[in-house]
């Protein structure tokens, strides 16, 4: 398929075509795929309901386009290169032919366990190739996967299982992370105490630690695939059938299950992968994300494999056995496109350039970033020291809900600007709105980032609660999809993402709802009330700052602080643990009783001397006492 844009004028031309005649534009890309039955209608949409359908009437199986289609053209090419946590352990390379066989075998094994089209299957696994096999095997049999990041707690896992009424869990005994090994199956056991929808659990042996196996429910991965056929006829799916659910945090309530469907997601992840990274046949591509996040779904598994790429999966962490690990892997596999998060760049930057020096990085052609705004200093460090000044940086802005990259340079095609995501991809019609919902036209404007026309990989609903999808994304500005991000369009028409404008914070590229963290804190019996805000953090981008009112009777502040942090780890996972937790006597409130987060954010960011007028507060005296507590805690 010749879907790649090669020049800036080509980009401008394609972009115009995609806006003038979106249906023809996307039909051309879609027609490069294998459809079991051709679609009848490219697009129907209504952002009020919202109701969006792409490629209606079309039937396909995404794995036929990933596996079967590539068997004869690149059966012996590496599809997945797996690099283990410990560099001394044997790596694993799965060719397209081998991946096809593994996926079919596991698909048959899942069928034998009673999994059918439409069933939900939870994948709670470390970064091992079997995790990708699990995702694709679900897609093969038409089951809806929901991958849960293996760093989430048992309680977060059970919430997700209950929400989507999953039937099966695919997991591993444990997870190697640097020097540590973390139990995984034990957490599944704990989660399942609260869930009754699960009929079977399949566990991969990875770390070899002891696990409990419950007869009639628990099976070993290697046992269920023993002697099973590696041929499987893919289930026929409608283009708008669900492909997966991925839970993500928002400003209110529990995480929502974002729903993606088969046809549009396939077309868009393929197209965006090829164009943003300018992938050429034979290149080796590496995205360091975890499959627990959307980046792992779209740009480790689906996008690259649809494009017939070689995709690296890395089990470990950037600093083990030393902070040169990323560069050692780039050298080892002669990586051409490297895609990571700003937080990882900043963490490595702290070690200086010595860890890079021993490695030959001359294979690198493209560097990417994702997940949070990249600061200019990190951008330059990445550009100069990793890319040696010769690799374009693609700063890719997108979201779990968008399914694929929305704003980004196309590598080597779009001129870059540090810290700018630059321009929308073809097909992506952006709008900058002021708080009254007026669209700000022209350049040099700042406002709320919205999207005014559907794109193939957009979310269709939030699982089990369509109204919530409408409220969250389509109601703030009727007729638009609202991203929750602030944006600036500069004098050249370039976009720079300014960060969230809602109560979502971005910690090391992970989305965290402040309400979610507050709810977890409030589970501690001694907590009376809490408020959580983000504050600038040198490595993580944003840190979590919690202000907590407690019943201190008979307790020390120190022990309570630790206990509350542990409660959050237990309820959500270590990624949600507050970086700073301050026990306070009150929280600043408006006369109507609303917590004034603006003030708490300023104090947390060290701007407590510039609070503006606080005299309208219900309890202005509280502010002074909080400021004193902050000073005391720093001292
Ligand atoms: C933020 C990750 C600035 C943004 C793919 C968005 C970014 C949220 C960028 C989505 C970027 C992502 N520059 N901010 N290049 N990429 N974000 O759902 O606030 O985990 O709304 O998807 O991350 O996070 P999510």
Structural overview:
It is a single chain. This protein has 635 residues and is α/β, with parallel strands linked by helices. Among the domains are: 96-235, Rossmann fold (3-Layer(aba) Sandwich), CATH 3.40.50; 504-634, GMP Synthetase, Chain A, domain 3. Helix content is 31%, strand content 24%. A 7-stranded mixed β-sheet has the order 5-4-17-16-18-19-20, sandwiched between helices. The protein has a 5-stranded parallel β-sheet with strand order 7-6-8-11-12, sandwiched between helices. Strands 21-22-24-25 form a 4-stranded antiparallel β-sheet. β28 and β29 form a beta hairpin. α6 (154-164) crosses α7. The protein is globular and about 75 Å long. The N and C termini lie far apart (62 Å).
Helix content: 25-40%
The dominant shape is globular
Number of strands: 30
Task: Please summarize the sheet with the most strands.
Answer: 7 strands, mixed
Name every ligand kind in the structure. Answer: 5'-O-[(S)-ethoxy(hydroxy)phosphoryl]adenosine
Class of the domain at 96-235 in CATH?
Alpha Beta
Please name the CATH architecture of the domain at 96-235: 3-Layer(aba) Sandwich
The overall pLDDT, averaged over residues, is: 96
Q: Report strand order across the widest sheet.
A: 5-4-17-16-18-19-20
Task: Record keyword descriptors for this entry.
single chain; 635 residues; alpha/beta; Rossmann fold; GMP Synthetase, Chain A, domain 3; seven-stranded mixed beta sheet; five-stranded parallel beta sheet; binds 5'-O-[(S)-ethoxy(hydroxy)phosphoryl]adenosine
């Amino acid at each position: 398929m010749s879907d790649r844009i090669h020049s800036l004028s080509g980009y401008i031309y394609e972009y115009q075509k995609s806006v003038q005649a979106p249906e023809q534009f996307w039909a051309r890309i879609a027609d490069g795929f294998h459809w079991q039955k051709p679609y009848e209608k490219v697009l129907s949409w209504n952002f009020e309901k919202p109701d969006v359908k792409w490629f209606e009437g079309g039937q396909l199986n995404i794995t036929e386009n990933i596996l079967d289609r590539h068997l004869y053209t690149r059966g012996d090419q590496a599809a997945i290169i797996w690099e283990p946590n410990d560099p001394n352990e044997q790596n694993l390379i799965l060719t397209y032919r081998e991946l096809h066989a593994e996926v079919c075998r596991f698909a048959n094994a899942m069928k034998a366990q009673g999994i059918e089209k439409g069933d939900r299957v939870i994948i709670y696994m470390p970064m091992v190739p079997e995790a990708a096999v699990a995702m694709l095997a679900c897609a093969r049999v038409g089951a809806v996967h929901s991958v849960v990041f293996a760093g989430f707690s048992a309680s977060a896992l059970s919430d997700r299982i209950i929400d989507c009424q999953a039937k099966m869990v695919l997991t591993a005994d444990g997870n190697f992370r640097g020097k540590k090994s973390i139990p995984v199956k034990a957490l599944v056991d704990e989660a399942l105490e609260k869930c009754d929808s699960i009929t079977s659990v399949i566990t991969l042996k990875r770390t070899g630690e002891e696990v409990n196996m419950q007869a009639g429910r628990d099976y070993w991965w290697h046992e269920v695939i023993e002697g099973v056929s590696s041929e499987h006829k893919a289930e026929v799916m409608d283009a708008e059938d669900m492909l997966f659910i991925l839970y993500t945090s928002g400003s209110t309530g529990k995480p929502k299950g974002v729903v993606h469907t088969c046809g549009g997601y396939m077309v868009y992840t393929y197209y965006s992968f090829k164009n943003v990274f300018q992938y050429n046949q034979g290149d080796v591509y590496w995205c360091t994300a975890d499959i627990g996040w959307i980046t792992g779904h779209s740009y480790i598994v689906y996008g690259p494999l649809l494009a017939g790429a070689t995709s690296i999966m890395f089990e470990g962490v950037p600093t083990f056995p030393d902070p040169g690990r990323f560069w050692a892997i780039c050298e080892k596999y002669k990586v051409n496109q490297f895609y990571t998060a700003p937080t990882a760049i900043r963490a490595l930057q702290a070690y200086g350039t010595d860890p890079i020096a021993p490695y030959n990085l001359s294979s690198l052609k493209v560097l990417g970033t994702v997940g949070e705004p990249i600061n200019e200093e990190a951008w330059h460090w990445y550009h100069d020291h990793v890319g040696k000044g010769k690799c374009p940086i693609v700063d890719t802005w997108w979201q779990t809900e968008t399914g694929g990259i929305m704003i980004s340079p196309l590598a080597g095609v779009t001129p870059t600007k540090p810290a700018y995501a630059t321009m929308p991809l073809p097909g992506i019609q952006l709008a900058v709105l002021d708080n009254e919902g007026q669209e700000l036209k022209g350049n040099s404007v700042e406002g709320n980032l919205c999207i005014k026309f559907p794109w193939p990989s957009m979310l269709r609903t939030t699982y089990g609660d369509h109204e919530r999808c409408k409220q969250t994304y389509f109601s703030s500005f009727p007729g638009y999809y609202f991203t929750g991000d602030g944006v600036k369009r500069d004098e050249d028409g370039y976009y720079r993402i300014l960060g969230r404008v809602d109560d979502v914070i971005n910690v090391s590229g992970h989305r965290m709802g402040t309400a979610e963290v507050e709810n977890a804190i409030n589970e501690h019996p001694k907590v009376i009330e809490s408020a959580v805000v983000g504050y600038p953090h040198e490595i993580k981008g944003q840190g979590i700052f919690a202000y907590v009112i407690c019943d201190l009777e008979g307790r020390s502040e120190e022990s309570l602080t630790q206990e509350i942090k542990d409660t959050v780890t237990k309820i959500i996972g270590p990624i949600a643990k507050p970086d700073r937790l301050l026990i306070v006597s009150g929280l600043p409130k408006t006369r109507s009783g609303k917590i004034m987060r603006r003030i708490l954010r300023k104090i947390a960011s060290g701007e407590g001397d510039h609070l503006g007028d606080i005299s309208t507060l219900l309890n202005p005296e509280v502010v002074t006492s909080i400021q004193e507590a902050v000073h005391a805690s720093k001292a």
